[in-house]
Automatic annotation (TrEMBL), chain A:
Residues 5-224 form the ABC transporter domain. GO terms for molecular function: ATP binding; ATP hydrolysis activity; transmembrane transporter activity. This is ATP-binding cassette domain-containing protein. It comes from Rhodovulum strictum. Belongs to the ABC transporter superfamily. Macrolide exporter (TC 3.A.1.122) family.
Automatic annotation (TrEMBL), chain B:
It is a multi-pass membrane protein. Residues 281-395 form the ABC3 transporter permease C-terminal domain. InterPro entries: ABC3_permease_C, Lipoprotein-release_system, MacB_PCD. This is FtsX-like permease family protein. It comes from Rhodovulum strictum. Pfam families: FtsX, MacB_PCD. The chain crosses the membrane at residues 21-44, 276-296, 317-345, 365-385.
Length: 225, 401
């Protein structure tokens, strides 16, 4: 079985000359489809940089990166934008919802932006996802009126909108209380189990990491365990 | 792109006060543009109507023929047959041409005339005058003689004379009095004063007199034909083209009013140029206002742009959202400014009712469509820079802000 994501010898350097900082130092990692993986490591170890590269928001300085058999290092911005839209979902630490839009509009965004309009099918899918996140009563609420946990669940629903193969979550529970964090993780586990969506979750929280079937530890720019 | 329009509208309605201020700023610029257009256009109309409204727009004058000469075989002029000074060149076939000229499109009036110089005598007082013989019934065809009458009537008949108020005052004349008019050819006749006019033009009110065409024939010994044909047009600016058409139709030397009016045309052009500058400044103000407001909006929305890019929005989508915002602001501001301009111009008198002491605003020359179109185009232009800046936002940096 071929891997969903493969990175090999990944190097990322910020700045140049004496000010150059090498964050990733030849990191290699493979993710199989359907995995629920925790990405652990201290601050500055390169977790967020790795997620950013895996999310095609940034290109590595050196090394290879492919997903679903597509070489993502060689792809141009337009191709990466479409690839990201179709195959990758994001959940950020601070939810990063569009503040002037309702919960449903936020969730439907990834589909609407690709299709050029908010189709009835997209709205139906959005409603289903929000209902699954326990937010059926909050569908038309402006996101500013939602609690932190509710916002993060909207963000998870948005990440799943286009049925991506990979969801990258950068400290998705880092800004939530324990109960809300557990609720979000329970939803992620459920979706991973039911739909086979691959999750890579960056976290400092051992408790959260223990809920994942695989743990990858990053230290000093390489995988250490 | 429907979705881009939705996002743009949402951004505009999300900051209502900011959007309202921006639209108001654009509207004020458009208002100035329209006000200046109406003022400059109205002023040009006013100046033209005051300077050439009462003169012939196309004139056909009889051409003086060269005097016959006798030349020796070696090229020396031996004799010149000098015509009497009283002889006047004539348009002998005026009766044929006048109906034909009246059919030319744009021609509103045709006035065949006999003109010449003369002396007006009242007792011991003598005044040198310019005499114009007009066809009865066409007295006000070119100069609105009826409109300028202060006493009596402009209607000219046999043995009647109409003259200016200054001349009447100089000669202490009253209606019904008789006076003697002697032409430059020495023919004299006694006429009865039937009307006094005042145009406000000092030279004219002092030295121009009007008699009937038959009276002028007697005075200037012209049993047939006229010395000039004056033509009035519906559109002053069509004089050059109409003169060409009349020339082609009749073969006569039709001269438009613009010939010899270079200084007036230069003044009007300079005025129009001033108007273009003022309107350009208004447009530049709009462009700068929209650009700066959208740049601020772009900066404020950097994190959202980053999120959109992360969710799969392409650079072109981001550009479209911000350019659409600019276009919508331009359209709203353009329409409001045009409506505001129209309402502000309504109280001003119409172009036909311009009076000294009032601003000669012409509501029909507000250039409303042009103002709205240029504003929308200007706003789109102004939004390109902020939109491109937005599209270049690095999602990673923006999201982490």
């Amino acid at each position: 079985m071929s891997a969903l994501v493969e990175v090999e010898g990944l190097v990322k350097t910020f700045g140049s000359g004496e000010a150059a900082t090498r964050v990733l130092r030849g990191l290699s990692l493979t993710l199989q489809g359907g995995e629920l993986t925790a990405l652990l490591g201290p601050s500055g170890s390169g977790k967020s940089t790795l997620l950013t590269i895996l999310g095609t928001l940034m290109k590595p300085t050196a090394g290879s990166h492919s997903m679903l058999g597509t070489d993502l290092v060689a792809a141009d911005d337009r191709a990466l934008t479409l690839f990201r839209n179709l195959h990758i979902g994001f959940v950020f630490q601070f939810h990063n919802l569009l503040p002037d839009f309702t919960a449903l509009e936020n969730v439907a965004f990834p589909t609407a932006v690709r299709e050029g309009r908010e189709t009835a099918a997209a709205r139906t899918r959005g409603r289903e996802l929000l209902a699954r996140m326990g937010l059926a009563e909050r569908i038309d609420f402006p996101t500013a009126n939602l609690s932190g946990g509710q916002k993060q669940r909207v963000a998870v629903a948005r990440a799943l909108m286009n049925r991506p193969e990979l969801v990258l979550a950068d400290e998705p529970t880092g800004n939530l209380d324990r109960a809300a964090a557990m609720q979000v993780m329970a939803l992620i586990s459920e979706i991973n189990r039911d739909e086979g969506t691959t999750f890579l979750i960056s976290t400092h929280d051992e408790k959260i990491a223990s809920l994942c079937r695989r743990q990858v530890v990053v230290g000093d720019g390489v995988v250490t365990g | 792109m429907l979705y881009g329009l939705k996002i743009a509208l949402r951004y505009l309605t999300a900051s209502k006060a900011q959007t309202a201020l921006l639209v108001l700023g654009v509207a004020v610029g458009v208002f100035i543009f329209i006000f200046m257009s109406a003022l400059i256009g109205g002023l040009a109309e006013f100046i033209l109507s005051r300077t050439v409204g009462d003169i012939s727009h196309v004139t056909i004058k009889a051409e003086d023929a060269d005097p016959p000469i006798l030349i020796s075989p070696d090229g020396h002029v031996l004799a010149v047959v000098e015509q009497g000074r009283a002889r006047t060149a004539t348009l002998a076939d005026a009766a044929t041409w006048v109906p034909l000229i009246e059919t030319v499109p744009g021609v509103t009036a045709v006035s065949p005339q006999i003109t010449g110089a003369g002396f007006l005598t009242r007792g011991a007082q003598v005044a040198q005058v310019g005499v114009t013989g007009l066809e009865p019934g066409r007295e006000s065809a070119i100069l609105d003689l009826d409109g300028y009458m202060v006493e009596g009537t402009a209607r000219l008949g046999s043995g009647l004379i109409v003259l200016g108020q200054t001349l009447a005052d100089d000669l202490s004349l009253r209606l019904g009095q008789t006076l003697r008019l002697q032409s430059s050819g020495g023919v004299s006749t006694v006429l009865t004063l039937s009307g006094i006019y005042r145009t406000g033009n000092g030279m004219m009110d002092r030295s121009s007199i009007f008699v009937s065409l038959p009276t002028a024939r007697t005075l200037f010994a012209l049993p047939q034909g006229v010395t000039r044909i004056e033509i009035k047009l519906a559109d002053l600016n069509a004089a050059d083209a109409t003169a060409l058409r009349i020339r082609a139709l009749t073969g006569l030397d039709a001269v438009p009013w613009t010939d010899g009016a270079e200084q007036l045309m230069e003044a009007l052009n300079a005025q129009a140029q001033t108007g273009y500058f003022l309107k350009s400044f208004a447009l530049i103000t709009i462009v700068i206002g929209v650009a700066s407001a959208l740049l601020l909006s772009t900066y404020r929305r950097r994190p959202e742009i980053g999120i959109m890019r992360a969710m799969g929005a392409g650079r072109s989508f981001v550009v479209f959202v911000f350019v659409t915002q600019g276009a919508l602001v331009g359209l709203l501001g353009g329409l409001s400014g045009a409506a505001l301009g129209y309402l502000a111009l309504l109280p001003f008198p119409t172009r036909d009712a311009f009076r000294p002491g009032t601003l000669p605003m012409d509501i029909t020359q507000g250039s409303y469509g042009l103002a709205i179109t240029l504003t929308v185009l200007g706003a789109i232009l102004a939004s390109i820079l902020p939109a491109r800046a937005a599209a270049r936002v690095d999602p990673v940096t923006a999201i982490s802000q």
